[in-house]
Design brief:
about 325 residues, alpha/beta, Rossmann fold, 8 strands, globular, disordered N terminus
C-alpha cells in the first residue's frame, strides 16, 4: 500500500508540475551559464598592479576582498575600467566598484551576466551604510526579461523596512521556465544554492551585516539547499513547495526560519512529498516542520506576498530590520 501511494503521488506531482508529459518538460529544460565570464582571460593576465589577480572560478570572496584592499584608489578605478564584466560579478569586491562596473546595466546593479536568459542583482537602499540587509530570492520564470517584478518587490520591502535597511533583488541563478520537470526537481536549485551561498559570503567579505533571506516559491528550494552554507540571520519562505528538508533541524542552520502561505495560493494544491527526486518535501508552514508561521490570510495570490498593505509585508519588514525575532 505504501509503495502504491508513493507511485500515485509521484504521478500526481508529475501531472501538476510537469504537465503530465515528458515532451513539454524536456523542451523547457534550462541550463545555467557555464565557463568563465567574458573577459576572464584578460583579467588573469593583467599584472599592472604587481599582484596576481584572484581567479573568479576558484578564489573565495575573502581572497577577492583582500586583493582589492591592497589596491590604491587609482588602481581600483583602472581595474574597473579595464575589466568591468569580471569586477561587476566578483563576490567579495567592494560594493561601489561593482556598481561602477555594472553602470551600463542600471542603477546600483551588484551583478550582471547577460549570458543565456541572464542573471542580475540590484539593490534598493543604501547597501554600503545599511544596518540591515535583506535578499529576495525569486522563483521560476525570473530572468533579465522579467526582473523588473523582483526589483519592484525589493523597493517595496525596503520602503516598508526603512532607511537603515537595504534590500537586494537577487536573480543570480537560472530559474525553471514554464511548466516542466525543472520545476519539480532540485537540479537548478542545487546550482542556485551554491551561487547564493557564495553571494552571501561575498556580502560578509565586504563587511556587510548578515542578511535575511526572503525566498519565494522555487526560490525557497534554493534557500533550503543553501541554508547550511550561508550566514543568514533569518530565512523567510513564502508560497513554498518545500525546502527539501523534513524540518528546521534538517536544514543545518542557526538562522531563524519563518514561513508564510496564503489560503488563496495555488501552491497549496501541490503535493508536499519528495519521491524519486520529484517534489520538494514537507510544507514549511506545517506544524511539524518547526518554522514560525507568519500571517498571510490577506495575501491575494501566489505572487503577491510582498504586495503593499498586506500583513505578510508588515511582518517581512519587521524581520528585515531586526524587530521580529
Amino acid at each position: 500500500m505504501r509503495r502504491f501511494r508513493g507511485t500515485l503521488t509521484t504521478a500526481l506531482l508529475t501531472a501538476v508540475l510537469a504537465g503530465g508529459t515528458a515532451g513539454p518538460a524536456s523542451a523547457n529544460a534550462q541550463s545555467p551559464p557555464i565557463g568563465p565570464l567574458p573577459g576572464t582571460a584578460a583579467w588573469l593576465t593583467d599584472d599592472f598592479t604587481g599582484k596576481e589577480p584572484p581567479d573568479p572560478a576558484t578564489a573565495g570572496p575573502r581572497e577577492v576582498a583582500a586583493f582589492f584592499t591592497g589596491l590604491t584608489s587609482a588602481q581600483q578605478r583602472r581595474i574597473v575600467r579595464n575589466h568591468p564584466a569580471v569586477v561587476g560579478n566578483l563576490d567579495g569586491a567592494p560594493v561601489n566598484l561593482r556598481y561602477q562596473a555594472n553602470a551600463h546595466a542600471g542603477d546600483q546593479v551588484l551583478a550582471y551576466d547577460p549570458r543565456g536568459r541572464g542573471l542580475i542583482a540590484q539593490v534598493a537602499g543604501d547597501l554600503e551604510n545599511a544596518a540591515h540587509v535583506a535578499v529576495i530570492v525569486p522563483g521560476s520564470d525570473t530572468d533579465l526579461a522579467t526582473f523588473d517584478a523582483t526589483a519592484r518587490q525589493a523597493a517595496v520591502l525596503q520602503g516598508e523596512a526603512g532607511d537603515d535597511t537595504a534590500v537586494i533583488a537577487w536573480a543570480g541563478y537560472t530559474t525553471p521556465s514554464g511548466i516542466g520537470l525543472d520545476l519539480a526537481t532540485g537540479r537548478l536549485a542545487e546550482t542556485g544554492a551554491e551561487r547564493l551561498a557564495r553571494f552571501t559570503d561575498g556580502l560578509d567579505a565586504a563587511g556587510l551585516p548578515d542578511p535575511s533571506l526572503f525566498c519565494h516559491s522555487y526560490g525557497s528550494v534554493v534557500c533550503g539547499l543553501a541554508a547550511s552554507d550561508t550566514d543568514a540571520s533569518d530565512i523567510v519562505v513564502m508560497g513554498s513547495p518545500g525546502m527539501r528538508a523534513d524540518g528546521v533541524t534538517a536544514l543545518g542552520t542557526g538562522a531563524r526560519i519563518w514561513a508564510a502561505k496564503s489560503p488563496k495560493d495555488w501552491i497549496d494544491r501541490v503535493p508536499n512529498v519528495e519521491v524519486l527526486g520529484l517534489g520538494h518535501g514537507t510544507d514549511p508552514t506545517s506544524p511539524g516542520f518547526g518554522a514560525t508561521v507568519l500571517p498571510a490570510d490577506d495575501v491575494p495570490a501566489h505572487d503577491d506576498y510582498l504586495a503593499p498593505g498586506t500583513s505578510a509585508l508588515a511582518a517581512f519588514a519587521a524581520i528585515a530590520r531586526g524587530d521580529l525575532r
